[in-house]
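Protein Record: Sequence and Backbone Structure Tokens
======================================================
Scope: a single protein chain, as residues and as a discrete description of its fold.
Tokens: labelled as protein backbone structure tokens, with as many entries as the chain has residues.
Position: the record begins directly beneath this header, with no further notes in between.
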Amino acid sequence: MSFASEASEDVPPLDFGELFAYFLKQSVPLFDQLGIKRDACDKLVESLCSKRKDFLSASEPSSLRNDNVGDELDLRIASVLQSTGHNYEGGFWSERKAVISDKRHVAIVTTASLPWMTGTAVNPLFRAAYLAKSSKQNVTLVVPWLCKSDQELVYPNSMTFNSPEEQENYMRNWLEERVGFKTDFKISFYPGKFQKERRSIIPAGDTSQFIPSKEADIAILEEPEHLNWYHHGKRWTDKFNHVVGVVHTNYLEYIKREKNGAIQAFFVKHINNLVARAYCHKILRLSGATQDLPKSMICNVHGVNPKFLEVGERIAAERQSGQQSFSKGAYFLGKMVWAKGYRELIDLYAKHKSDLEGFNLDIYGNGEDSHEVQLAARKLNLNLNFHKGRDHADDSLHGYKVFINPSISDVLCTATAEALAMGKFVVCADHPSNDFFRSFPNCLTYKTSEDFVARVKEAMTRDPQPLTPEQRYDLSWEAATQRFMEHSELDKVLSSSSSSNSDCSSSSMEQDGNTGRRMRKSASAPNISDVVDGGLAFAHYCLTGSELFRLSTGAVPGTRDYSKQHSLDLRLLPPQVQNPIYGW
């Protein structure tokens, strides 16, 4: 489609200064990556544009004059390109996507699945259920399938599954017991392999190929960094019309605690920036405790299991009728690894052993560091009572009045949200990961170890306030889904028709206040930022195709493609006859 200007014959051609200024303006994301300050680029663009300003004011219609130098340059470029009748159709790194005209489809891709009770297994499952509940879009949850040898290492109580269908039934039953309604979304599996050293699941092969092209409309990548560190396949933003990343984990905090952690964190930080830019249109960070990635904003898009809100309502009703609901003191619940707050907890108790004399804390958790944590507590003779891990919704935990969580490695602690939903006090660190909880009166934060002692004593000597209906709603998955729809811009994407989506996605419009004529800003010009992102994706693709590079950077051996056992379990083509992907 072309946009002819009434004054096209009078539009002067671009000079070198204007072309150079436009190149600089479009290259700002690349300069950011190189550490060049944005202000310096803006001043140079303004200087280059000012040389032509007098000439442009005299020769161009008033509709192309703008007080903002950036907008003025965009309109200047658009006017020249419109006068030629040229229209950019995309290309170079990217391809034109098929317009989806029927019911929109959302694919949620995550890095873990039940029965592994980790945040990236539980929260995407709830997200899929509540997104599908509206029936406005089809939803598919895409989770990793582990071969039986890996299942035995990951899943609790030696639980294993013989087929994906068996695991899907387990996941649905678990979910529907908690949400109270019949779920209506599809569950698909992609091959994954467990990495023992990092206690995480790495995709094997191209994860995007397990979503059919006809359903490749909207993708939600749970942990986009994790999914794409070693991704060797189709670029997500090429295959999907809209790609949203949700950052769950503070990887840099964990990595810094390892040997040579500072050096590792430096490289991981830049790799995360690369994959965020190359593979996502929008990124949501659950809290300020995460890395500040390109295209990102902070928003808590997680809710709590409805069962916890029901417990909170029941306890509030019991207290209103005069019953004693909280018969126990304080507890902590979490996976027993040092990075999950156990180091901070033991240090606090050791430092203020005399101040906390007589105050016993019950701890529930299992994990690789269980023996070391308990040994350290015994050596210091701390009042910490250790118990095996259990579900936070277990009846035995309802009677506790205070939940203590000193962790500063979390991004947004699910257990903290659950404790607040049950009407308990929460004592937690003054840390960006807890910013969302500050507005709740039962959340008591501390900055120093002395503050910690004061907050614990305060919580033990008074009763928590019942949650208001507004506070209960803020913790719910209904509210979390609403926040997600708004801040991911998914509501706009889903509400737009296929025609308006394809028409408006590549350009913006500017209107002449005098004539009412509408003009595309840079509709005919390739976006340099997109070209840079495509270049980064191509470089990443080339590097991740090398097994030597993958192994030297910590990848699980043999994860560029799925294994023979994966092909048998998931009924895929054998890896030796799998068609390799060499390009976009």
